Amino acid sequence: MNQEIKIIPTVMPDSEDDFREKINLVYRHVDTIQIDVMDGRFVDSVSWPYNDSGNKFWEDLKKQEEGLPQWEKMNFEIDLMVENQIEEAANWINAGVIRIIGHIEAFTSDEMIHEFIELGKNAMVEVYLALAPSTNLDKVKKWIPEIDGVQFMGIENVGHQGEPFAEEILPKISDLREEFPDLAISVDGGVSSETSQELIEAGANKLASGSFIFNANDPKDAIQELKGF
Prior knowledge:
Layout: E1 6-11, H1 16-26, E2 32-38, H2 55-63, E3 75-81, H3 85-95, E4 99-103, H4 110-123, E5 126-131, H5 138-141, E6 149-153, H6 169-179, E7 184-188, H7 196-202, E8 206-209, H8 211-214, H9 219-227
Parallel strand pairs: 1-2, 1-8, 2-3, 3-4, 4-5, 5-6, 6-7, 7-8
Helix pairs in contact: 3-4, 6-7
């Protein structure tokens, strides 16, 4: 595989201040940051701006007074660990994200998946579908002609950082890469210096990492380490 390997820091913010602090640590070293958002319904965790501290963000966004921090210097993608994928995707598209990542397990029908994909296309943002380690790969394969990429969740307990890596995704990544050699394949969860090279060898070309980068003494060095440098 000759595709460039991209490292995407993932931010799972507790508050807007936490969000800004983490972004300021990494935005000079990458071109895209993933925002992991959770509503407490699709997963058991709740993150900003779905907690009480997020009200001002949504109010400012509706007034168009302020967008995402450092938006003029970098791109954002949104990982929608929420129950209402379509409504929340629309909100984040309005916030200026370049990519929406919907979780296949959150959709209750093919019609909803199609609507999600069309929402992204109409807004000219990229659309990825994510799947948990235990989800059958065929549930995503059927949509690949219509989407821009697939995100494998590298942990089973989605919505938490620092969880153990799910080895069972490796053959699934290899399967998908063999069948779709030009597809963007991302992994989010369990990505560290111990797993990054086997993920790349399996066929992943995007690695989304949170705790490994932000718990490091130097986030820049951690990003380079994930690339194998």
